[in-house]
Amino acid sequence: MLIVPKLDPNSEVPYYIQLYTFFKKEIINGGLLSGTRLPSIRVMAAQLHISTTPVELAYQQLLSEGFLTSKAKSGYYVQPIQTFNGIAAPSDLRSSKPYPITARDSYSYAYDFHISKNDFSNFPHKIWRSLYQEQLSNTDLLQYGDPQGEPALRDSISTYLSQFRGLRCSAEQVVIGGDQYTICSLLSLMLQGRTTSLGFEDPGYHLLPSTFKRNGFEVKAIPLQEDGLHVESLYRSKANTVYVSPSHQFPRGMTMPIAKRLALLDWALNTNGYIIEDDYDGEFRYHGRPIPSLQGLMEDSPVIYMGSFAQSVSPALCIHYMILPKALLPIYHELKSELYLEHSASRLNQIALHYFIERGYFEKHLRRMRLLYQRKHDIVLQAIKQHFKNKATVSGKDAGFHILLTLEHNNTAEQLVSVAKAASIRITPMTFTWWSEPEKDALEFILGFGGIDEDQIEEGIRTLAEIWFP
Fold first, then answer.
1. Whole-model pTM?
2. Does residue 103 carry a pLDDT above 80?
3. Which residues form the HTH gntR-type domain (predicted)?
């Protein structure tokens, strides 16, 4: 059998890679059948007018990957492999449900009311660069670190949370992770065998309930009332763990009052359950006093507190954390040992952040950012009042990075989003936050203000009102 691969002498790809790619493709596609004997290294090199080295390197790579076998004094032969016949996946494995409209698209907008973008115009670049460079000189930080997180940063986090968010915790209860999914996955493993079902706010943020569902938990959507999760529905659900965002519910933005927080704690004590408290933007409250955490309302509370520095500093740091009840610490350490866990957040970023907090830079940065976001928040509210007049209502204000815009219109949410996009305005319908079907056909939109420039807000709101209500 004559086999003559075509080599491109002008390509930047080396000959041996070109040969390897050619043979691999032919074997996978069935062009070279199992048992086919390839030309010897010398014969192939002579046919291609090249040295034997590229041919030998290509054959050796194919050998190591199992595409070929070598027989002494006989040559190289194609190994039997499983080929693909092009049969489509069974239809029941493919979802017919359309993807909802979310804020995640790559389109560039002139007026970008993204629901989770930050403003880095005031980011302390020089300070952070200096702190980071300090850590680069410590070669020990290039080694593996503590899977639970750097002890110095865990101490800084527990101190900060105790002082400013009212938590009752110590450094030993802090677990640091590189992203939300890592933290949620680890938590679901810790709770397996101790709880079986998870209740969560609907509408709400789906990452944690989706993670728990993937890990075998029964998940139960719990409706909201004007002041937060419906506790009676939680009791009826028979869930023994609940996931809530009491300081600023996503996406509706309500703050859970103290009476309902105490009712939730009472539910946990009565059912021997756990509360997972997501405090994703608790530092950013613009009018009124900051709301203390649910976790800190009682000593040794059955609350797993989750937070991060994604909004307060930068998502690029990839530093998230959870505060575990003391009762769960032995289970965490058992998993850490069993799974050979390693640190998932950069040690360099962790130690730099520790000094950022310890030296007072974090507190100053938070004050500046809180004032900046408060100005944007107030501009948004004033612009909506001026340009939408009585055609829209606002809810979920006074905290966080978004407000909820509700209106009545003859068009659907998808049609209104399309009209806005044509005018280069990003706005996100709230529909993607529902786990179950929405209770009503209300037109509700999440309007983020964190990342848009202050001088674009009023013009963007005015344009949106004009195109939706010409």
1. 0.81
2. no
3. 13-81
